[in-house]
Amino acid sequence: MRAALFSGKITMSDELRTVWWEHGAVCLIDQLRLPHEQLVVRCESLEMVAKAIKTMQVRGAPAIGCTAAYGMALAGLLSAVPDTAGLLADLAAAKDVLDSQRPTAVNLAWATERMLTKARQFGTGTPRALAEALLEEAHAVLTEDLAMCHAIGDHGAPLIPAGGRVLTHCNAGGLATAGYGTALAPIRSAFAQGRSIHVWVDETRPFLQGARLTAWELHQSGIPLTLITDNMAGYMMKSGKVDCVIVGADRIVANGDTANKIGTYSLGVLARAHGIPFYVAAPTSTIDLSMEHGDLIPIEERSSDEVTHLSGQLIAPVGVRAAHPAFDVTPAALITAIITERGVVEPPFVAGLRRVKGGV
Ligand code: MRU
User: Fold this and answer.
1) Fewer CB near the terminus (10 Å): N or C of the chain?
2) Which residue has the least CA distance to atom 8 on ligand 1?
3) Is residue 55 part of a domain?
4) Any domain includes 164
5) Domain range spanning residue 227?
6) pLDDT by residue for the chain (360 residues), tens digit each?
């Protein structure tokens, strides 16, 4: 993908990549500038990659994972150490830097761990050869993520009823992954099959990933959508206008409890109250079996300025404090099923998640 491609009409399809490697740099679509400007960020140092993750120029659990994988490769290629032992130490330090940028999405640490493991398994060779092997691994992380998203689409599309009106939250689309998306994958696949579909897009305060990113992606792809504010979801459900909810995930733990964008838990409660199926769609890289239940998931606290300001404009009285937990945890009991690239997992989740995570 070249920056120039963004000057024309683009669609969030297989061809559009959110994250890519070009001429020694990690390139990203700047998600802070969408939907009005389609700009590319070139990260030429580990610090630039870390900053892009922290400031959410790139966001969405799988996309952060892919970016971090390239960040590790970049750190390896830029390292000036004379031997592989020194490079391994540099890579361990790079992992710490990247992991600390955003704590909730497990895909970040999953990807950096995969890269470090690859480095440790490297046999004899020069630091340069090791760094080049890491770049190949980062390409593999990206390619696999795209394939996983398509498989999630294949498994999830049949869950959407004919004429389905699907409510989604945040952005779990192509922009949040290597492409195609997780929560948006079943929607994309159903639409590609020629099925009639309509998407209710939660605006997703305070960062507006729904209004800015999901609405943009779906609109580009010609998939019918209606944007709503987050507090309209209950009304839409009570009015019989929602057939199912599909959301993404930042971390799914062993019992099925799922961290996702703040507001997801409220949707789970509402869906249960109205008897509406509530699906989580995520690749197995988002499953963290090391944690037993959701209370253990670290919840990122972001700046209160993101709540008190809209597009840089102060909307609250000067001096008012605001809270900003960026994620919440939906208990497994509220989740109808979890759609992964290896199939749909139904409750009880413990055995099913272990099966798909282990690939057996
Ligand atoms: O803070 P963000 O925008 O990174 O949060 C993103 C979400 O919560 C997504 O729903 C989740 O990462 C799934 S992305 C396929």
Assistant:
1) C
2) 261
3) no
4) yes
5) 151-357
6) 333 233 333 444 445 679 999 999 999 999 999 999 999 999 999 999 999 999 999 999 999 999 999 999 999 999 999 999 999 999 999 999 999 999 999 999 999 999 999 999 998 899 999 999 999 999 999 999 999 999 999 999 999 999 999 999 999 999 999 999 999 999 999 999 999 999 999 999 999 999 999 999 999 999 999 999 999 999 999 999 999 999 999 999 999 999 999 999 999 999 999 999 999 999 999 999 999 999 999 999 999 999 999 989 999 999 999 999 999 999 999 999 999 999 999 999 999 999 999 965
Q: Among candidates 348, 231, 337, which has minimal Cα distance to 278?
A: 337
Instruction: Respond yes or no: is residue 250 known to be catalytic.
Output: yes
User: Does residue 149 have its Cβ closer than 6 Å to ligand 1?
Assistant: no
Is 206 within a domain?
Answer: yes
In 3D space, the residue among 29, 9, 4 whose CA is nearest the CA of residue 175 turns out to be 29
Q: Which two tokens stand for residue 286?
A: 């988002």
Burial class (CB in 10 A: 0-12, 13-18, 19+), 309: middle
How far, in Å, CA of 283 to CA of 359, rounded? 12
Catalytic choice (243, 250, 257, 288)? 250
Residue in 8, 2, 9 with CA at minimum distance from that of residue 221? 9
Number of separate domains in the chain: 1
| Any ligand 1 atom below 6 A from CB of 248 | yes
Cα of 85 vs centre of ligand 1, distance in Å, is 35
314, part of any domain = yes
170 lines ligand 1 (CB under 6 A): yes
Query: Which of 59, 201, 286 should be mutated for ligand 1, with most atoms under 8 A from CB?
Result: 59
- Cα separation, 283 vs 144, in Å, equals 10
Tell me how far the alpha carbon of residue 92 lies from the centroid of ligand 1, in angstroms: 26
- Ligand 1 centroid–CA 209 distance in Å is 9
| Structural contact between residues 1 and 27, judged by C-beta atoms closer than 8 angstroms | yes
CATH code of the domain containing 310? 3.40.50.10470
> What is the pTM for the complete model shown?
0.95
Overall residue count recorded for the chain in this entry: 360
